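ok so dumb question maybe but i'm new to this and my supervisor (M.) told me to 'just get the structure for SUKH-3 immunity protein of toxin-antitoxin system' and walked off. so i did the thing. is this what she meant?? sequence i used:
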Amino acid sequence: MERQMAERVTNPRDTESALDWQLERVGSTAWQEWTLKFQRMAFGYANDSGWHDSADALQWLDHHALLHEGVAPRGALVWYQADRIRVACSLGSGQVIGPLPYGEVAVAALITLSTDYVWSDPQFPFAH
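this is what came out, is it supposed to look like this??
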């Protein structure tokens, strides 16, 4: 499945490089309210995604039937409900990375963050 995702989505930064970029920022509190921006930049896009926030992106992805349920493959964007709609990146095996609700970039078990989640390929259709 991971290979299929990589073939369908082409970002400026590939999945492993995007995950490395995120891992280098573990512990940072600079991204606390910018989960979508963090993921967009991790995948190599310098300019805005075209979405107002994670909730707006989730609604757009849902409208275009681009969301999936079940276990998120490595590199997928995981959209979850915590204090609000947030997005993180799957490391595989139920682990995600990104700016978490408690304020810093970290790795966490998705199940500890939310049981209400879906995932999508790492797509930013309006970014460049």
